Amino acid sequence: MYVVGMTGGIGSGKSTVADAFAALGVPVIDTDVIARELTAPGGAALQAIRSAFGEPLMQADGTLDRVALRRRVFADAAARHQLEAILHPAIRQRVEQMLAHLTARYALLVIPLLVETGAYREVLKRILVVDCPEEIQIARVMSRSGLARDEVLAILAAQATRAERLAVADDVILNTASIEDLRAEVANLHQCYLELAAESMP
């Protein structure tokens, strides 16, 4: 399986790009989506998170208070490492299961913390970075999440820098133009990845 890893900072537009690839029939595996499934009611990781972080992070209906958890882990590096130790092995196992069942020419694996963790490098054939200026990231995250500017800046500070992400990129989508331009870029990359996948076949 030819696997393209996609990453980008918070608010860079990874979901929009992933949706554009999916619209072209590309299987998309998103580690953030898997994390949400693992931490949903009945999810495999929810009880471990509850035990590690306590009842204040649980809501009355038994669901995880994701905003409170995000604030906690981005304010406390030890808490973030503790959460990652719970989630990352379970996410990895699920990714491997999903990849094993795919029959497409290539797959897109969305890994927001690709640069920070170095994970999945051995299964990736290529790395696509979704990039945009930091001020655009901040504005997007504030508008969609209700987080204050300093909270968004704390998240950005805990993530790799633009330069660090761009340094590992084989391909870059600068997500500052229209949705039509974005889809055109994705379509071009799609053709490129189809050709690369065909070349890599034994």
Write the layout of secondary structure elements.
Blueprint: E1 2-7, H1 14-23, E2 28-30, H2 31-38, H3 46-53, H4 66-75, H5 77-100, E3 106-110, H6 114-117, E4 126-131, H7 134-145, H8 149-158, H9 162-168, E5 171-174, H10 179-200
Parallel strand pairs: 1-3, 1-4, 2-3, 4-5
Features:
alpha/beta, 12% strand, globular, five-stranded parallel β-sheet, single chain
**Cα gyration radius (Å):** 17 Å
Strand order of the largest sheet: 2-3-1-4-5
Mean pLDDT across all amino acids = 93
Principal-axes geometry comes out as: globular
The CATH class designation of the largest domain is Alpha Beta
Structure classification: alpha/beta
Provide a brief overview of the structure.
The protein has 202 residues and is of the alpha/beta class. 57% of the residues lie in helices and 12% in strands.
Write up this protein:
Strands 2-3-1-4-5 form a five-stranded parallel β-sheet, sandwiched between helices. With 202 residues, the chain is α/β, with parallel strands linked by helices. It has helices spanning 14-23, 31-38, 46-53, 66-75, 77-100, 114-117, 134-145, 149-158, 162-168, 179-200, and strands at residues 2-7, 28-30, 106-110, 126-131, 171-174. The chain is 57% helix and 12% strand. The protein has two domains: 1-27 and 105-202, Rossmann fold (3-Layer(aba) Sandwich), CATH 3.40.50; 33-101, no CATH class. The chain is globular and about 50 Å long.
